[in-house]
Design a protein that fits this description.
Layout (H helix, E strand, L loop, with lengths): L2 E3 L15 E5 L8 E4 L10 E3 L5 E4 L6 E10 L2 E9 L10 E7 L5 E19 L6 E15 L13 E11 L6 E6 H4 L27 E6 L5 E5 L4 E5 L6 E5 L7 E3 L7 E9 L2 E8 L13 E8 L4 E8 L6 E3 L4 E4 L5 E4 L5 E5 L5 E6 L13 E3 L9
Parallel strand pairs: 1-22, 17-21
Antiparallel strand pairs: 2-26, 3-4, 3-27, 4-5, 6-7, 7-8, 8-9, 9-10, 10-11, 11-12, 13-14, 14-15, 15-16, 18-19, 19-20, 20-21, 23-24, 24-25, 25-26
Length: 392
């Protein structure tokens, strides 16, 4: 049976009480850590921390609005907790503006960065080679509707102008708010690269229904200042020059400059750099293989791939399959490399988290809702938790 699921919020309080139902638990093989989840929208929305057996350590439901990307982060050299809140997330459209927030270990707000989109909020550290100082850099996405001539795509208003989302990469100093780098997809990626045409809630006929032709869903910054950007709707990973914003290579999609050897991916999320050594780069990703607008391309999976920029080839290093056949996650999802080599996967709109050994063996599986209940977490993470806990 195929399980094509689109996360669209919690339906009613009676239908969902947060839990973690552990199905597979290989004590000798799993890595240590707690599980960070953030079911978004509905009466039980909010950040949750569970231990591996399913006990809630900390939660603040219904106080922050829709919550995305809840995870530990380093800010000003201290362990903090980062998340994104939005009151305007529209799952049918697939984007929403809100505030990127940083909390201390008592879950008191330290810093808020407003008016960004929820698809990415990461704080990375950058070494200043001249001074030796380590600086924080926040990576965020913006989704701005702008006017464009979309008549060649079947969108013809009275003035021949439709609406399209300009996805932007924004790198900034999270303390001062100073913009360090800004990049526009529309300035560099033609509309013809999109694999998702104007339709339904993204039909391009008004600002509220702007065509999301690119759909930026993850950003990573390399040591040399370049960026890795994932586009769900072109099914492409881009390397962006940190100097002039030019596209250095494309991986995947219809215009790939790198040849994929014996594998494919599509509609991916959460592309991360796990090795950057000269011409050789290793990337991890959650391969959705489905985006709700087009037909599924197969089961969703986690993937680690190796890219050789010198030979312009990429190979599949390892694939991590779902705990049951037929998982087709229409949005969200993440893959995290754990300290001892295991990987931890959030299955996006399918409410499961799993852990696998490096060679793909399933050693942990848990669901936090029933499939089809419309409960989902954009991403999930596994890491130690040392913050406050709920009263016993």
């Amino acid at each position: 049976m195929s399980l094509s699921v689109v996360g669209c919020g919690l339906l009613a309080a009676a239908q969902y009480t947060p839990y973690l139902n552990v199905k597979v638990y290989n004590t000798s093989a799993i890595d240590t850590g707690s599980i960070y989840l953030a079911p978004h929208t509905g009466p039980a929305q909010g950040p949750y921390v569970f231990d591996q057996r399913g006990k809630i350590l900390y939660s603040i439901p219904n106080r922050l609005g829709n919550v995305f990307d809840f995870q530990p982060c380093i800010y000003q050299k201290n362990l903090r907790y980062c998340l994104f809140t939005t009151g305007s997330a529209n799952i049918a459209k697939g984007y929403g503006n809100g505030t990127a927030s940083i909390y201390d270990d008592k879950f008191q707000l330290i810093k808020g960065l407003p008016t960004f989109d929820y698809h990415e909020f990461k704080i990375q550290q950058s070494l200043n080679s001249a001074t030796g100082a380590v600086n924080d850099i926040a990576l965020l996405t913006l989704y701005n509707p702008v006017r464009r001539d979309l008549s060649q795509f079947g969108v013809a208003n009275e003035d021949d102008q439709g609406w399209v989302i300009d996805c932007r990469l924004r790198a900034l100093d999270p303390t001062s708010g100073k913009i360090l780098f800004d990049w526009s997809a529309l300035d560099h990626v033609p509309l013809s690269e999109s694999l998702v045409q104007p339709t339904g809630a993204i039909n391009g006929r008004s600002a509220d229904f702007a065509w999301d032709y690119f759909h930026m869903d993850s950003i990573a910054r390399l040591y040399n200042g370049d960026f890795i950007v994932s586009s769900r709707h072109t099914s492409t990973i881009y390397r962006i020059s940190g100097k002039d914003g030019s596209i250095l290579w494309r991986l995947g999609g219809n215009f790939s400059t790198i040849k994929l050897q014996g594998f494919q991916f599509s509609s991916q999320h959460d592309v991360r750099v796990i090795k950057d050594g000269g011409s050789i780069m290793r990337l991890s990703m959650f391969d959705n293989a489905y985006n709700t607008f087009t037909a599924p391309q197969g089961d969703s999976s986690g993937k680690i791939i190796e890219l050789d920029a010198a030979t312009k080839t990429a190979r599949l290093v390892q694939q991590y399959n779902p705990p049951e056949s037929g998982f087709q996650s229409g949005d969200g999802g993440s893959l995290q490399l754990l300290p001892r080599g295991n990987v931890f996967i959030c299955w996006g709109s399918i409410p499961y988290v799993t852990e696998h050994t490096a060679d793909g063996l399933l050693v942990y599986s848990a669901n936090y809702a029933t499939i089809g209940s419309s409960v989902s977490s954009y991403r999930a993470f596994k890491a130690p938790y040392t913050g406050i806990t709920n009263p016993k």
